[in-house]
Amino acid sequence: MLDLNQTAQQRLVMETFFFSYQAFTAKADDMLARRGLSRVHQRVLFFIAREPGLSNKALLEVLGVSKQALNIPLRQLLEMQLVAMETDATDKRKRRLSLTRGGAALEQTLRREQMRLVQAALATAGPTAAEGWLAFNQALADRQDTAGSQDSSEPSVDS
C-alpha cells in the first residue's frame, strides 16, 4: 500500500502519472501536430463525437472553458471541415455542432490509437487493477469538479 505521507512515495505517484499521461498522449499529439492541431482540438472532436448536435454552450460547459478559449480551435476545425455548425431547427439563436465525415474519421483514429494503449496496459495490470484505475480516474475527475469549493487537504511531506 502506498504511504502518501512519504516524499518518495509522493514522487513515485506523480512521476508514474506524468509518464503514463505522456505515453497516453504522445502518438495522438504527433498525429494532431501533422495536421496543425493540438489536444484542445482532440477534446473538441471527442465531445462532439460523444454527443452529435451538441450546442456551442453545452460544449463550453463540458470543456470548462470560456467562449474566447474555444473560439480559435473551433473556428480552425470548422475551416478544416472537420466540424460542421448548423442553426438549431427550433431556436435560431442556437448553433449545433457535429463532426463531418473527415472529423469523425480523425476522432475515431485518435480514440482507437489511445484505446489500444489503454487496453494493453489494463490487460497487463489485470481486471482488479482495471476497475481500480477507472475508480481512481472517476474520483480524480469528480474532485476536479469540486476543487474550487473545498479546502486543500495536502498530505504531509516527510523529508
UniProtKB/TrEMBL annotation:
<dbReference type="InterPro" id="IPR036388">
    <property type="entry name" value="WH-like_DNA-bd_sf"/>
</dbReference>
<dbReference type="InterPro" id="IPR036390">
    <property type="entry name" value="WH_DNA-bd_sf"/>
</dbReference>
<protein>
    <submittedName>
        <fullName>MarR family transcriptional regulator</fullName>
    </submittedName>
</protein>
<dbReference type="InterPro" id="IPR000835">
    <property type="entry name" value="HTH_MarR-typ"/>
</dbReference>
<dbReference type="InterPro" id="IPR039422">
    <property type="entry name" value="MarR/SlyA-like"/>
</dbReference>
<dbReference type="Pfam" id="PF12802">
    <property type="entry name" value="MarR_2"/>
</dbReference>
<feature type="domain" description="HTH marR-type">
    <location>
        <begin position="1"/>
        <end position="142"/>
    </location>
</feature>
